[in-house]
TrEMBL record:
Residues spanning the signal sequence: 1-17
Keyword Signal recorded: yes
Annotated InterPro entries: PDZ_sf
Keywords associated with the record: Signal
Protein's name in the database: PDZ domain-containing protein
């Protein structure tokens, strides 16, 4: 399936410096790409699950996609040009690719991929377990999210006016707590325009996105209510004004190994810190029975509340805890 959108549009962007409050602007002409939807990618689907398709005919799953994806194909036909314009408006980045190939498959190991752009119409499948992506606004938001990820990649091309800003910005590192969250922020802004605020909100609050936006806790706390994207204040401007030592940069600073664990849907493993729970720190008993923060997971609540390794915890709400168990119970009472 091939769709051609020959229109051009203007976006405001410029060569931005990290931490620069007022980025220079210039008009950049962007050509909307020619879109090809491939919903018969037999080799791609088979290659993703080599252990599945010796027993299950891959043609059956591809046939299912062709029979099922008509509403999503119509959405692309009807809305792709508007999505590209909105992506540029809210990102401050010009789309630079002349063509875009979208693969619609039945299953994928994650909610999708931006490069290549892959949408699992049937859902996420890992091993023998699969989870459907609800049709309608949830699936459309997934498509917009992958297009938002792809838009951020446009800004990282060496000849892009935004290359200097984006390639050097801490928050553009490809981790679930950083670039993935920025892409989702952009996707929500675009979805508000394309799908409407009500449908976007319901999709955002769906169980699917609560599970699969892996940086959700940080997203809700630092981005969702604070970073309001608009044509006058697109994502590039927010990034230009976010200094390198900001709180958001600090709390999203995780190691590559930790990022891989988060991407796999698991908490980072910190020696001495329980792998479950909200607070994510351990204490040791110091002199005078003082409780001293020993190890801390900087992706969880304790770190974001200001705790650091070596801190001495004397009281909680005026009361002195006698053990780590009592300390955690007292803190959770205050949070709840």
């Amino acid at each position: 399936m091939r769709f051609s959108f020959p229109a051009v549009f203007l976006v405001t962007c410029g060569a931005l410096a990290f931490g620069q409050a007022e980025p220079p602007t210039s008009q950049v002409v962007s050509t909307l790409p020619t879109i090809t939807v491939n919903d018969q990618a037999v080799s791609l689907q088979a290659g993703l699950y080599p252990n599945l398709y010796p027993t299950t005919p891959v043609a059956d799953d591809i046939g299912w996609v062709v029979r099922t994806d008509s509403s999503l194909v119509r959405f692309v036909q009807r809305s792709a040009d508007s999505i590209f314009v909105a992506l540029s408006d809210y990102s401050g980045i010009a789309w630079r690719e002349e063509s875009l190939l979208m693969y619609f498959v039945r299953y994928y190991p994650s909610p999708g991929s931006a490069d290549p752009l892959i949408i699992p119409v049937g859902g996420v499948r890992v091993g023998a377990l699969s989870e459907a992506i609800p049709a309608g606004a949830v699936l459309k938001l997934e498509l917009i999210y992958q297009m938002a990820q792809r838009m951020l990649l446009q800004g990282l091309l060496p000849d892009a006016p935004t290359y200097s800003l984006l390639s050097n910005h801490e928050l553009m590192q490809p981790t679930p707590l950083r670039r993935d969250n920025l892409a989702f922020l952009l996707a929500l802004a675009v979805s508000n325009r394309i799908l409407g605020p009500d449908s976007t909100y319901l999709a955002y609050q769906s169980p699917f996105w609560k599970r699969h936006l892996l940086g959700r806790e940080i997203f809700d706390q630092y981005l969702y209510h604070d970073w309001k994207l608009s044509q006058d204040r697109p994502l590039t401007r927010w990034l230009a004004e976010e200094v390198a030592d900001s709180k958001l940069v600090e709390v999203t600073d995780i190691t590559p190994d930790q990022a891989q664990l988060v991407s796999a849907g698991r908490r980072p493993v910190i020696e001495g810190v329980p792998s479950t729970g909200r607070l994510g720190f351990s204490v040791r008993i110091g002199s005078g029975s003082q409780l001293i923060v020993d190890n801390i997971d900087n992706s969880r609540t304790g770190y974001r509340c200001g705790l650091r390794a070596g801190d001495v915890i004397r009281t909680v709400d005026g009361k002195k805890p006698g053990s780590q168990k009592q300390l955690i119970e007292m803190i959770l009472d205050q949070i709840d």
